Amino acid sequence: MEPLSILRSPPVVGLASLAAQRLLSRGSSTSPATSLLGAAVAVAGLGVAAAGIREIRAAGTTLDPTRPADASKVVRQGIYRYSRNPIYLGDALLLAGYAIHRRDLLAILPVAGFVGVIDTFQVSAEEEALRDRFGSTYGDYVASVRRWL
Where are the transmembrane segments (predicted)? Predict the structure, then answer.
């Protein structure tokens, strides 16, 4: 097992970020406004991630983030026209919604940490595997669609 392979597990990084939010922030008393805004951002995140999952399943390719080389095609339709990583974007929005609900600026730090770790260790590895597998088809996609948003 690679020493940093744990950083290539999006569920582990997401759960660690959630735990860090709880540990770092004292969680000021919530207000109806911040609870509603936090819930709206979190629900938007769930929707973005679900749209990404739906498109991958519809394309009949792998959803396993540990095996990007098993992808059978480059998914470019639906939400993938706007973001190359809508599932991770949705996860980040979910964490951001929880940070808003917590009403503590320290709760934002793990959101940034999640994005940084996923971008550095997971997304870059996925992109390398997809570039190797699909060549210019994937290169054209990268040139036309942003990594996150």
Answer: none
pLDDT tens figures, 94-118: 999 999 999 989 999 999 999 999 9
Task: Give the C-alpha separation, 95 to 84, whole Å.
Answer: 19
Distance from C-alpha of 21 to C-alpha of 35, rounded to nearest angstrom = 16
Rounded Cα distance between 96 and 84, Å, is 19
Answer whether 0.85 is exceeded by the pTM.
yes
Residue spans of the domains in the chain: they are 30-144
DSSP string covering 12-78: HHHHHHHHHHHHH---PPP-HHHHHHHHHHHHHHHHHHHHHHHHHHHHT----TT-GGG--S---SG
